[in-house]
């Protein structure tokens, strides 16, 4: 009985802590970085990252994108911007479009790690949705070398309560996965 009580209390504390970080993540600060990274897909991530890049808050822009998803309309609002940035042809040296081998935040972090090594970045600003900030920061800080300064900021996130509930449940489970991925690869 004592073990069940301990496990129940531990689970409750875990859910409470992760949920609080999902709903109210520690806000990142906009500051100049070597690169701004747009995680994908998302309805406001790329526009936010592009705004930071255009405003001179980063020397380079990296975009995680999945061309196959575009045909299904998952990131329709970003399609025109992706086309303008020429992700299909990669003609600019300061804009990097990449498709992670692993379709997850962990996969995106591994791809960014390669860019960090190739480009010599010492600081990055990762742009994601508010509910995803806590887990993204955890993953990127565990995958990238400790010498890389990682800041994660939230793009505008306006969701109905039911969607927040769905994200809270998902992020609690996904954080457990993130711990295993970053620990054991």
UniProtKB/TrEMBL annotation:
CDD domains: YdcF-like. Residues 45-164 form the DUF218 domain. It comes from the Bacteria. This is DUF218 domain-containing protein. It comes from Glutamicibacter protophormiae. Pfam families: DUF218.
